[in-house]
Amino acid sequence: MAEVQRYDSLTILLHWLSAAAIAAMWGIAQIVDFFPRPERIWPISAHIVLGLMLVGIYGTRVFWKLTGGRHMPNAEKGVLGLAAVSVHHVLYLLIPITLLLGISLELIRGDYVFHLIQVPPLAPGNKDLREWVGDWHGLAANGLLILGGLHGAAALWHHFIKKDGVLERMRPAR
Questions:
Q1: Domain region containing 78
Q2: Distance from C-alpha of 174 to C-alpha of 163, rounded to nearest angstrom
Q3: What domain count does the chain have?
Q4: What is the pLDDT of residue 84?
Q5: What is the pLDDT of residues 32-78, one digit of tens each?
Q6: Would you call 112 helix, strand, or coil by DSSP?
Q7: Calpha distance 71→40 (Å, rounded)
Q8: Residue 4 within any structural domain of the chain
Q9: Alpha carbon 35 to chain centroid, angstroms
Q10: CATH number for the domain that contains residue 114
C-alpha cells in the first residue's frame, strides 16, 4: 500500500484542537443550567477559557493555512467536491462568528472567571440585548456542531465505505 499523503503536523494538531474545544464548549453549554447558581462559575469559566483558547487556535490555524500549511487536492469531484469545499468555508466562517458572539455576550453580561478575573458588564441591565446575543450565539454554536458533525460523518464515510484514505490525511503519522 502506498504511503498516504498527510497534512503537516501543525495543521493536524490545530484541526483536532479546534474540534475538541468546540465539542467541549458545546457540551458545557448543554449542562451549565444543571449547576446551582454559585457553582455555575466553574462550567461558565471553563467555557470562557476554552473559547479564548479557540480564538488563539483559530487565529494560528488561519495564519498557518495562508502562510505555510500543506494544501491537499479535493477528495471529491463535482457536486460532492463543491459541497465539501462549501462546508469547509462555512466552518471557517461560523467559528469566528460564534466566538465573536460569545465574546459579545460575555462583555454584555460580565462574569467572574474562576473567581480570579472579573469581566465588567457593559450592559448589565439590558436583558433583551443579552438574550438576543445569547440566542444567536447558541444558534451559531448549534450550526457549527451540526456542520462539524456532517464533516466528521463524511470523513467516516470516506474511511469505512469508500476506503480511499481521506481520513488518513488528517491523522497524525505513527
A1: 9-170
A2: 19
A3: 1
A4: 94
A5: 999 999 999 999 999 999 999 999 999 999 999 999 989 888 888 99
A6: strand
A7: 42
A8: no
A9: 24
A10: 1.20.950
